[in-house]
């Protein structure tokens, strides 16, 4: 694959300001979410942001190389092309990745959810999907009507984020724990493990921030 470097465009993605490629780029120390495609070329990790033909080298600055280990478990080390969402800092053309949100083999770009989406979660057996943000929390299950409740910000308790609500005969409890979650059917890995209880039924799956 041929990449056409455009460091100014990549910097704009992170810093929201256009920077000239040949100028020194001040480092913003606050990590931001990077959305794009990643692949391995020899010993180099290459990241290309969504909807952009630029690229950056990737340096894993997470504890004990945790980010690279997760990506390798999905297939990066074996040559697979991944869609990734990584928390990091752009420093002179190098994305210093400190944490990951999600990674999927040949996944499609998903830009930030904005005001309408804060969380997504999904699982299998039975198939279900949850979207939370904006005005509603919506749970979809195969063969059953949607459950829709008013959205309120999830409560954070250490590594746990929680949501509880009931209305119109529906009771919903969502528990998201920040532990690595693998979804074999989705061919991906996610930063959060999800447990959703709806009207007495317990659903298990993975979650990621939007």
Alpha-carbon Rg, integer: 19 Å
Measured between the Cα atoms of the first and last residue, the distance is 29 Å
- Number of strand elements: 16
- Which spans have pLDDT < 50 for at least 5 consecutive residues? 1-26
User: Structural class, from secondary structure content?
Assistant: mainly beta
| Widest sheet: strand ordering | 9-8-7-6-16-15-12-11-10
What is the N-to-C order of secondary-structure elements (H for helix, E for strand)?
HEEEHEEEEEEEEEEEEE
What share of residues is helical? under 10%
Count of helical regions: 2
Strand content: over 45%
Short description:
This protein is mainly β. About 10% of the residues lie in helices and about 50% in strands.
